[in-house]
Task: structure prediction
Amino acid sequence: MTDRYPAGNYLKFDEPAPRVLRITMSRGKMHEQDYEAHHAITEIWKHVDADASIDVVILTGEGPTFSAGGEYAMSQRNTHDAEFRMRMWKDGRDTIKNAVDFSKPIVAAINGPALGAALAIAMMADLSIAAKSAKLIIAHTRLGVAAGDHAVMMWPMLCGMAKAKRYLLTGESVSGEEAERIGLVAMCCEDDELQDRALEYAVKLAARSQTALRLTKQAANNWYKQAWPIFEAAFALEMLSFADEDAAEAVQAVLDKRDPVFKHRDF
Result:
C-alpha cells in the first residue's frame, strides 16, 4: 500500500482487515515531526477520504510512542523565521480543518507519549482508545507559547473548563487512565490489548452502514465547527507568541538541558 498514499518520511500503511486502513507514524525513536512529517499528517486525510476502498482508519504510533510532536529544530526556526512561521500557521490550521472535514470514522490507538499534531488528530478521532502507558501532553506553555492547535477549542468540550485549563496552563501530562476518567478519551486498556481493541472497533464500524456513520459524524462535528473561532484565535496567538523572547528562551533551554528563565511581563 505504500504507493497508494504520499507517505513522506513519516507514515506507514497497512490494511489489517477488509476496508480498514492503519496509518502508523514512524520516524526515529519518538516519531518527532519535521515540516515534511507535519505536512504528511496534515494532508493524508484528503487522500484517504477519496479512496473508495477504505471505510475506517486506525491511527497509531510505531513501538512504545504515539508521537512526540514537532522536533525542537522546527520550534527554534519558528522563533526567528517569520516566513516559516506563516507556513507552519497554514499547515497547522489545515491539520485541524482536514481532520474535521474527514468523512470516515477514525479510531485512534494512543500508545505512549502523545503530543503535537498527532495528539490533535487523536483527540478529534471518532473513537479514541488510550493505553495505560499513554501520556497526553499539551506542552505549549513549557515552550513559552500559547496553547494553540486543537486543545483550547476541544478540551473544554471533552473534560470541562476547569480540567482543561489545568492541563493547558501547566503542561502536565494526562495518563491514559486519567484521560478516560475525565472524558478526554473514549476508553483505556492494557498496553498489550490496545492494537487488538482498536482493530476490533474498526472492524465493527466497517460493518455498519457507512452512510449512517458518515452522516452522524458530519452532524456531530458541527460542535467543532461552531467552536472554530476559538481555534482560530488560539492558533493565531500560538504563532504570534513564537515571535516573543520567551519562546526563543524556552527552546534554547531545552537544547541546553536547563530550566528556562522567562521575563516578567507588565501587560
In short: Residues 42 and 232 are 17 Å apart (CA to CA). The mean pLDDT is 95. The two ends are 53 Å apart (CA to CA). The longest helix spans residues 82-101.
